[in-house]
Amino acid sequence: MPRYAPIQRFLHWLIALLLIAMLIMGTVIDSYGFEGLKAAFGMPATNLIYKYHKTFGVVILALTLVRLAVRLRLGKPEYAQSLTLFEKMASGAVHRLFYLLLLAMPALGWLATGAGGFPVEFFNWNLPALIDRDEALSKTLYGLHGVVGNLLLLLIALHVAGALNHALFKRDGLLRRML
Question: How far is CA 32 from CA 28, 90, 114, 134, in A?
Answer without folding.
Answer: 6, 36, 21, 23
